[in-house]
Structure formats: C-alpha cells, structure tokens
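User: quick one, fold this
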Amino acid sequence: MRVLGIDPGLTRCGVGVVEGEVGRPLTLVDVGVIRTSSSLAVPERLVSIERGIEAWLEEHQPDAVAIERVFARSDVSTVMGTAQASGIAMVVAARRGLRVALHTPSEVKAAVSGSGRADKSQVGLMVTRILRLDAPPKPADAADALALAITQIWRGGAQARLDAALAAAGRNR
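Assistant:
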C-alpha cells in the first residue's frame, strides 16, 4: 500500500509518501512541503496548494490519502487556513477516486509514538525510527505528513485486510 500523507496548512502544507503494509517495515518514498507566500491572496494560495497536491498524486500514484483532521485552536485564522487547505486536499484526492482518511493529531501521535500527547519532536523521532532515516524530516510539517501516512497504513491497512477476510468468508459460505 502506498499512502500520501498531508499535513494541511496555508503557508506550509506537509506532504509525504510512505509505502508498506501492516507487520512489515515501511519505506519512505518522498517527503516535502508545498509552500505559499502570505503576500498572495487566499484563492491564489489555494490554487498553488491544489497544483502541488496534484503533482504529488501524479508523480507517486498513491492508493490512499491521509489528511490531518482539522481541530479547533485558539487562533481562528490558523484554523480557517488549515481547513481550507484540507478541503482542497480532499477534493483533489476524491476527484481521482482515491480513498481519503482523516486522522486527528492525537490519533496520529498515539499511532507512531504510543502517546496521544507526544510533542512534535517525539513524533519526528519516531517517524525517523519507523522509516529508518538518518535524521528527522524537516520542517515538522513534513514529519507530520509522514506520520499521517504511517498511521493510515497501520490502521487503514489492518481495516482493509479485515474487510477482505470478511468478504472472503462471505463468499465461502
């Protein structure tokens, strides 16, 4: 399974592709950040994010897309930009017929570190270990995107295997 993880943001949108399956070592395919300038109008920034995500989908041909679920923060303007970037990511993936999964930050932290309260440095360290990297991906948005992809493989992959087993059991009756 190949998953594109997206940590949505209006200024920095983390993107990372991980390949593998439950119970086997995972592999980093690519990681990066789609950046937009705060001097641009929001609609132009969203178009840049859309084009960037389209390019990642075209280049890496993932089986699924995992996006961080937007949650309430104290800064409403940050939430709005994150929600707008998240919506663009969902539309771009859905347009291609890809499975889209949303994961909360605490769900991702718990999946990769064992604690839903892990800080960004702990998540980066665990992503480094899980993917057998020499150093944590920078910036944190990139590491978070990889953590999202890892979470989807581990949680979504297990669900896909269960669904397949149930479907096979139903055919064998």
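User: anything notable?
Assistant: The longest strand covers residues 27-35.
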